[in-house]
Amino acid sequence: MERKQCAHRFSTVDYEWAGANILFVKTSGFDAEQEKEFEGVFKFVGGLPYGDLIHADKSFLSDTCREKLREYLIKRYENKEFN
């Protein structure tokens, strides 16, 4: 049986700064391994994202989707796309 190629998708729905150092980001996406859409809010503190969807023990997303989502969020933050 052939396995499908993963095509996880992510998009930023909205974001809001709460003070100078705290950022909230609402993101939606698609976990290709589970064939499931999702939406979640992440909190950036000190340049790092926090949230259940990217937490290894709390997320219902597949491991690869969770890791790619975390990379997506950090890359957008580092590229100053939330300014």
Structure description:
Helices cover 19% and strands 39% of the residues. It has 83 residues and is an alpha+beta fold. The mean pLDDT is 93. It has one domain. β2 and β3 form a beta hairpin. It has a 4-stranded antiparallel sheet with strand order 1-2-3-4, covered by helices on one side. The protein contains 1 helix and 4 strands.
Strand content: 35-45%
Alpha carbon gap, first and last residue: 46 Å
**Protein structure class:** alpha+beta
Order of helices and strands: EEEEH
What level of helicity do the residues show?
A: 10-25%
- Biggest beta sheet summary: 4 strands, antiparallel
Short structural description:
By secondary structure, this protein is α+β, with helices and mostly antiparallel strands.
Q: What attributes does this structure have?
A:
83 residues, alpha+beta, 4 strands, 19% helix
Describe how the helices and strands are arranged.
Elements: E1 9-17, E2 22-31, E3 36-45, E4 48-50, H1 63-78
Antiparallel strand pairs: 1-2, 2-3, 3-4
